[in-house]
Design brief:
The structure holds two protein chains of two kinds. By secondary structure, chain A is mostly helical. Chain A has one domain. Chain A contains seven helices and no strands. A six-stranded antiparallel barrel of chain B has the order 1-2-5-4-3-12. In chain B, strands 6-7-8-11-10-9 form a six-stranded antiparallel beta barrel. Chain B is globular and about 65 Å long. The chains are: A mainly alpha, B alpha+beta.
């Protein structure tokens, strides 16, 4: 129960961060994908089940506030949460490289899927432009902010993780 | 949590259920479209006041570096003044416009008095699309203030977008610079019709792409571009911006680059025209 409450707080906070505060103090028009970071962080720390449940609600929140197709981001986030939850076996607390790589990878996948679904389908073919102007800088920014969010989630759920570690051994 | 041994097996099950759920949602929103808006409306209406509050926190943080004394008071005052300036500017522009070229255009279109004055509502922007791909933003006015889908949104006397979705206490505005935005427009000088398209690739320069529709258009740099009279959504004669560059094209000009009058980098207040083109057309045909 405590876990559910914490997840709820993470998701809501990330959503508000992403849609309000970060859009005002943005760097070069970029906003970090905080909700994605929350999803993959939880997936890594607690596994696929938690990852895809959190992902579903995080994606749904994005869909509700902005998306034109309800459920699209929910689906992408569920996939990402499930997939990166598999890395839970390799999770250990002090490691920072794995979460870094996972956040970067997940954000790249998210951005490329966004491009494919929402831009390529409308005949926007200049992929290299989007890659260098949006995807790479965006991923970079997300990773930098993401590491802090990851650490924050890890610290605030420390008491819940002990059981979790044994569970997946 | 109850049965820990089962957990790993159930991950797959949870995954499959959630995937099915999102597939259903996608299908629903593609097929049913407007009928499931109730979901967005309810949840969005709950989130809006919080975003409003947090946004002022964000602005305060952003403003911290520039101004330290009585921030909130000054910013509140500033916001009110901005909205005042916005509406006054619009009035001035409206008058100017009405006095000059619009008169001849109106005669031409036999639209006479219907377009003389538009009713407007001011709104402030409370949040921006949470991603880097789109340029949507949310304003603090919704259906309860008379906002409807398709209404034109102005800023700095120029067109800046259109209401994409209107909910109870907030609305989503699709900005003119959004990659999906396309406005039917015309040149004031020559009357050549064109499309003004938003482009993600040009967003950085703050420009829009003009796609000419007529053969051999007579346009030159500095030409004013306004919304055309053939659009279903946009009211005619709203200023969009000026042509700033015409790229070399062998012989026939097909595209040009336009700098909008609205400043998309610093949008905080916008003005919404609550008259819709479809209503005005209906009224006219009813007369």
């Amino acid at each position: 129960m405590k876990k559910v409450l914490l997840y709820l707080i993470f998701v809501i906070t990330a959503f508000f961060l992403q849609s309000t505060i970060f859009t005002i103090i943005d760097l070069g028009g970029l906003v970090p994908d905080c909700l994605l970071v929350v999803t993959v962080s939880i997936a890594l720390i607690f596994g696929s089940t938690d990852g895809c449940i959190v992902g579903f609600f995080a994606g749904l929140l994005l869909d509700i506030s902005f998306g034109s197709i309800l459920g699209l981001f929910a689906m992408i986030f569920v996939l990402l949460g499930y997939f990166f939850g598999k890395f839970n076996r390799m999770y250990y607390k002090q490691d920072i490289t794995l979460p870094l790589i996972i956040i970067a990878l997940a954000d790249t996948i998210l951005n490329i899927t966004t491009y494919v679904f929402l831009f390529l389908t409308r005949n926007r073919l200049n992929f290299s432009y989007y890659l260098f102007k949006l995807i790479i800088p965006g991923v970079f920014y997300t990773v930098i902010i993401g590491i802090f969010i990851y650490k924050l989630i890890q610290i605030s759920t420390a008491s819940l993780q002990k059981g979790g570690d044994k569970l997946y051994d | 949590m109850e049965n820990r041994k089962k957990k790993r097996i159930s991950a797959k099950l949870v995954f499959v259920i959630l995937m099915m759920l999102s597939t259903i949602l996608i299908l629903l929103s593609v097929i049913a479209g407007d009928r499931i808006r109730i979901i967005n409306d309810t949840i969005g209406s709950v989130l809006t006041p919080a975003q409003k509050g947090l946004n002022s926190v964000g602005r305060a943080v952003a403003g911290f570096f520039s101004d330290n004394k009585d921030k909130e008071q000054l910013m509140e005052e500033n916001r009110q003044l901005e909205s005042q300036i916005e509406s006054l500017n619009a009035v001035i522009a409206e008058n100017d416009r009405a006095m000059s070229e619009i008169d001849s255009m109106r005669q031409l279109l036999e639209m006479k008095d219907n377009f003389k004055e538009y009713n407007t509502v001011g709104a402030s922007i409370i949040s921006k699309d949470s991603g880097n791909w789109y340029d949507d933003f949310i304003i603090d006015k919704g259906t309860k203030d008379g906002i409807e889908k398709g209404m034109n949104v102005l800023s700095n006397n120029g067109l800046c977008g259109v209401i994409e979705e209107a909910y109870y206490n907030h609305s989503v505005v699709r900005s003119l610079i959004d990659d999906r935005s396309s406005v039917s427009a015309m040149s004031v000088n020559s009357g050549d019709l064109c499309f003004v398209n938003g482009s993600l690739e040009m967003r950085e320069d703050g420009t829009l792409l003009v796609e000419m529709l007529t053969e051999a258009p007579k346009i030159s740099e500095g030409d004013e571009i306004v919304t055309s009279y053939i659009s279903d959504i946009y009211l005619p004669g709203i200023k969009i911006g000026y042509i700033t560059e015409i790229p070399e094209q062998n012989g026939n000009i097909k595209t040009a680059i336009l700098t909008p009058v609205a400043d998309f980098e610093h949008l905080t207040m916008v003005l919404i025209i609550t008259d819709q083109k479809s209503d005005i057309l209906q009224k006219e045909s009813g007369d």
